[in-house]
Amino acid sequence: MTTQLNPYLNFRGQAREAMEFYQSVFGGQLEVMTFADQGGMGVPDSESDQLMHSALSVSDSVQVMGADVPSHMEGDFANGRIALSGDDVDTLRGWYDGLAAGGTVNVPLEKAPWGDWFGDLTDKFGVSWMVNIAGTSG
């Protein structure tokens, strides 16, 4: 069982450009998924080619993730989020529940369209966290 702590950067329409830049700096394999790839996910047609998710895998221990924040999502996303991911269900679910205590659950930890379990929250100190549990269990 594994877990990882990854920086997750947010952009307003510049995620692809930024992630390609980071790939030019760090090397590695860049995988991207657009909102259109996931059926649109409620974003305007003008934003459907923006990145819903991207991951730059540089090594086993270095991964940078990023996405475009849709225009309908209000708030300051400039600081990004901290992403916890892996396949250690018990550890990741426990961390999600612990971080949610006294905070705000933005997305409950539940089955996501891409097949993993995903949740998003803001802890009681205002820090934003995402948890993704790989695979079909959860």
UniProtKB/TrEMBL annotation:
- What are the transmembrane regions? none
Q: Which CDD domains match?
A: PhnB_like
Tell me which stretches of the chain form a coiled coil: none
| Superkingdom classification of source | Bacteria
Residue span(s) of domain Glyoxalase/fosfomycin resistance/dioxygenase? 7-131
Pfam families under this entry? Answer: Glyoxalase
Which InterPro entries does this one have? Glyas_Bleomycin-R_OHBP_Dase, Glyas_Fos-R_dOase_dom, PhnB-like
The UniProt entry, under PANTHER family, shows: PROTEIN YJDN, PROTEIN YJDN-RELATED
This chain belongs to which protein, by name? VOC family protein
